[in-house]
Design goal:
The two termini are 28 Å apart. The longest helix is centred in the middle third of the chain and has 5 residues. With 142 residues, this protein is mainly β. Helix content is 4%, strand content 75%. The chain has one domain.
Amino acid sequence: MIDIGYGHFQNSDDRANDVSFSLGTQYRVATHHHLEARLGHHSLGEGSWLYRVQYGYEALNGALWVQSGFKKELKYDSFLALVGKNLNGRPFGAAHSSVFFVDTGARLRFLTLTATPYIGQVSADSLSDNSLKGIDAISMCP
């Protein structure tokens, strides 16, 4: 799997362009077990290497699943968090998160439920790391 992208970000007078790419692969250990890995790079600021590595298991023809792994992602909370900026000669922002996650889900007849607890940290230039923990949950009807 190969992805190549371009993005333009703007906040008032600040602008940034981003060229990105990522390479990914999946290996099926058995029909229901798989390993996945993705490595990518964004050119924002000084540049950022990102990754995602996970193991997954599916049951009942994909109706139940659990995946767990580690990932490093950019933070899109604000222009400063995403791109970063020099303030008084010091770099600030350019944040990324590094987390361990477990993604679980069930596809029922007319309902899909997912829950993804995660724990890790957010790192940014010139700032102390902050802990990050929570759970994302989604309920969908077709």
